[in-house]
Queue: 2 jobs
Job 1
Amino acid sequence: MSELRCGPFADQWVISAPERGRRPSDYRREEEERSKEEDCPFCPGNEQMTPPEIYRVTGEDRRWRVRVVPNKFPALQDQPRLDREAVADVFVRVNGVGSHEVVIDSPEHRKEIPDLPLEQIELIIDTYVLRLRALMEKSAHRYVLLFKNHGKEAGASLAHPHSQIIAAPIVPPAVEARLQAAKAYYKKKRRCPFCDILVEEIRCGERIIEEADGYVLLAPYDSRFPFEMAIYPRDHAHDFTAITAEQRRGLARVLKRTLSRLKCLLEDPPYNLILQTALNSREETTAGQKVLSSSSHWRIEIIPRLTRMAGFEWGSGLHINPTPPEEAARYLREVAITG
Ligand SMILES: [Zn+2]
Ligand SMILES: [Zn+2]
């Protein structure tokens, strides 16, 4: 069983997940991404290769369009209760309560978001909303993160396009710190800091890649990585799971265009896509919820994996970005895309 571990500084938690276990020999050569369709557990016909299905979207032809299954090697999983204990009065351990799901984007083994029709991308977004809502029903799931790893270098072990959702019993310290800073900003100025970022970005324009369908796509002012991008809803919204049908349609379009720009400009680079949405706030007081909803703004971050974290970055936590976001935005704006 996995567990979460933290040292006395409380600035970093680690999920220790021995069932994903690797022996020394497993680390010697980089694991090959499984890419053959015959032995792909996410392809139609191989459904028995995944753990029992959690959810599926079925088309008019009765075939599935999107499937959700538990991760075969979960980082965290459902357990009767949350146990938190001190270890030797120095460390803290929490048992690995949570959830780890996989959303299979479509039955197509080789079609990524840029290749899929808009209707299919809308089904994927609908599934994200449903699963995030379901996971947030549990108060033990303090933090829920949806992400997509594309390409082996970005952490994908299966080539068939998919996303993952992990629910954890603790709020990661870096997330908590940003949340507290956002709350403090709101309390001082009575404005959402992310809305303020958007106002300034739109006024300046240099880092905007596109503004359409109710969303703003930009290269963040403090981009850590070359060609990092973020998609923000134009109007303030803290909770991704509350988006309307029209906003979902708009998001499908902007997501397809964004990932097409990336694919086109950088020849299908590996990337991580991360959905940042409001914390599970059912435990908060009404006043606390008001501050939380006014100071958080959901967004999607896209991080192309073009550089590697090296000694300086690991040691200091500071990133060296060789491509300023103003330049990245200019290149990304100029990509000719349709749709
Ligand atoms: Zn497949
Ligand atoms: Zn906002």
Job 2
Amino acid sequence: MKIRKEAGVDCGLEVDEKELAGINAMSRKTLTAEEVYAFAVKLCDNRVDRDGERFPVATLEELAELFVGKSGIFDHQWSARGQTARIYRTEVVREGELTEAGEPYAYLKGYAYLLRTEGNRDLIAEIEGGIKKEVSVGCSVERAVCSVCGQDIHTCPHEKGERYEGKLCWAELVCATDAYEWSFVAVPAQRDAGVMKSMRQDMEKLEREAALGRKYLERLRGEVVRLGGLAGLGLEHAVLEAIVKKLEEPELDELRAAFEKQADRAWGAECQLRRGGEGKEEDRDGAFLI
Ligand SMILES: [Zn+2]
């Protein structure tokens, strides 16, 4: 079964000889300390998470081996430009304090590197600035075991997050078989900013379209008033204007067609000539005033 979890970026690392040796074991060409940027990420831990699942330390140890050499991708903005970081070593860090599962707290730490290229400069600045903090991991485990009865969580009668005689039920993710990805996801503040930005663009687009629509309708109303005058219906200019003001596009189109026909009948070829003269406003107004 495939598992996806979120954790965080730890910190930038000093690339000493030991780190550089680890990086060069992964790299096709031999890199110098100046050519690489290394940082640590917290990939996953052994706490019961939001999904009511956890990785026991034994699974973290298995994942530690599986994540070495795996490339991490960044969110859309970066991955589109092909930015990737690679994990060159991992370790399970134990911190002593007991968790609700009765195991000392432990997490899987990944050490990753990026090339210090012009294209990666902004990304490195973001990691350094603590902006890109969340890391999401994808892996596979063989089984999810119920903490209450020890059976498969999918078939046993217990529900994750419920208590049975005081004992909390969660799933133990055991026997890791693959670590297929890790990726950076934008932190919430960034995500909001992104949403705000695209919403603003959408609003501007709608407003632009609305403005164009209003302009078109105004022109159409003016045209109908003009043709109404030409049609010789004996209606006052002001009355025609008051009428068309209340009409929308479909009615205006109908009225324009009807007035046009009537105007053609009333004025014949002369009118058509005048209407054919594009951009001669005085001529049209003059015709209307007759
Ligand atoms: Zn159970």
